[in-house]
Amino acid sequence: MTTIGILGAGQAGSTLARASVAAGYTVVIANSRNPETLTGLVRELGPLASAAYATDAAAAADVAFLGFPYSPDDLLPAEELAGKIIIDNNNYMVWRDGHFPDVDSSLKTVHELRQEQLPASKIVKAFTHVQFHARAQIRVPSDTQPALIRLARPAGAADRKALVVSSDYPEAVEFVTDFYNDLGFDAVENSPLKESWRSAPGTPMWRHHVDGQSREELVRNLQLARRLGR
Burial of 194 by CB count in 10 Å (0-12 exposed, 13-18 middle, 19+ buried)? Predict the structure, then answer.
């Protein structure tokens, strides 16, 4: 049984924990405070979930999920995460994160910066364009569910959506592809990390992040992406 260590118990981390447990994964979740503050969430998630301090969650994890934006000043449990696949669902948002000159100049992507921050780990960009919250405009009752839950479909469903996965490590892409499938989505690879700008906010594929897109639509929209000034 794969254990997902979820670092960050906000909206993204808690929603992924719910989806993961429902798919049969074990989760260990941590926040910036202490495990006791997560008692209610763990009780809700059931016996496949537990809470821990971030260092202990990282150590217990087979695969980790970072549920918070990139910051060059982050103090991460690098030793405990060494050699492990790390799912990074961050998007570069200047209004929130400030400017990173290397990203602004297209020299690097924010996920390459995360890889540099955790050089002994295997960073994979995933879950970046599926919402972890309810639809902003509620049309039908199911819109109150996070899109990660609302858009999930069984394999082979005609209306199944696809999500991007990008990494410099094939084994990380393989894991996320299987993980996506277990959670109800197809995967479209867009590797390596230096190409992950194609699924950044403002690109053609991003325009469909609310209600999702098929595998064919996602492949086409990734190909249509153009960097500013090119």
Answer: middle
